[in-house]
Amino acid sequence: MQGNRETFIIGIDEAGRGPLAGPVVVAGVKIKPGHARRVLFGIRDSKKLSPAQREAWYRVLTHHPAIEWAVARVSPMVIDRINISAAGNLGARRVYSRLSLERDSRLSLESVLVDAGLTLPSSVRYKAIIKGDEKIPAVSAASIIAKVTRDRLMVRTHKKFPLYRFDLHKGYGTVLHRRLLKQHGFSPIHRASFSVR
């Protein structure tokens, strides 16, 4: 019966659209609206938090019993093959599928909210929100999980390819990264389709 159903919201966002190297990481969180107001109170877009603040929120988000979360990574090779927008959307579909409620008729979705720039299949009812990572707490939470997951991955990648200092710039096109690219050429995790000028 509809009245006995538990309702949830899902927020989805990505990290790593612009870097010259590494994957794009998409994250999603699923939470009841009432829990979202309490658990996510004061949360902000990952870009407006310091690394220490992001790590602190990440620990809260990934260990809180009221939150279910999922991440999907799409590799640089796939990004080069299908383009960055399609890669982000592929990650969003994977995350949505992992958090989907379709297999449990006792659960229903109040809303699926994604940061603008991501799309889900037409069979999914969702809203793309411009600056959703700033306006919607569930999307802010997803942005933090995506960013911390990707940053940690790039720090681990630095150990494999230390010449590129991925631990410092996380694959973004900084002056240092571009200089190291000129010195050493592309690594296997660089996006060949991205301009490095």
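the 2nd protein, sequnce then structure:
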Amino acid sequence: MVAVELEFYLIDRQRDAEGYLQPPCAPGTDDRNTQSQVYSVDNLNHFADVLTDIDDLARLQLIPADGAVAEASPGQFEINLHHTDNVLDACDDALALKRLVRTVAEKHKMHATFMAKPYEEHAGSGMHIHISVLNNKGENVLADADGEDSALLKRALAGMIHLMPSSMALLAPNVNSWRRFQPGMYVPTQASWGHNNRTVALRIPCGDRDNHRVEYRVAGADANPYLVMATILAGILHGLDNDLPLQEEVEGNGLEQEGLPFPIRQSDALWEFTQNDHLRDLLGERFSHVFHACKHDELVQFERLITETEIEWMLKNA
């Protein structure tokens, strides 16, 4: 069973006085919220017309949107998709939801973006995947008879963690994706796991035996959901097929503890991707080669750009 959560920003069509992106005014008002208010009911009320149109259109298109919340930053929201046992349907619905949200935003004379980090000073947007595994009797095999972590869950966690550094090129596929991984920005920065801990990469939420699951919290909202799902399933399969050690559970703030680090640049991530035979075998050699070639070419093109910041810093100082 899988369920997708997508974070996104509503953005004003007009830039601010300095040319930067800014949150939109609440429809019908001049009220522009610039403060972070996670789970704010007021923010939901201010943009109720937009969110209602998203919900209505999702129903018409049979997209199983299952609720929206205001997220950590101004103009940022999260929409959850209902869980399903069909992984491809979950990915189809995620892509359809992104198109739908952008369409509704344009109708309300604003933009919607699933860019991983549109603002320097605010949190990025993620794609969180909840996953559980049922046997042919419909029983959740990630929990034992007492509702605790099963041996199978621990093997799956070990596999996902082991492949995670090499998977980052898939989970953070664009140059902007890497700006999201900063301390204090509600995103994990290393391969880790823990119970009901939002500072780790793999979170096991509270719940009864039937709802025992893993929340994979690494991917950005800009990632391809099919590739994110393939990465997760590859990690689980890798753990089930191999007797891998599972690192200690993180308790407390995982951002302040040592663990298995991620690559910190896209170039490093692409190199790590090429070094892991297990991941390439599971994803397929042909796909792995084409993906790496495309992303390497994109990075080379980006690095050729001369930015305004470079000119400002270096024009008269070099």
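DSSP finds nine helices and ten strands in the chain. The chain has a mean pLDDT of 93.
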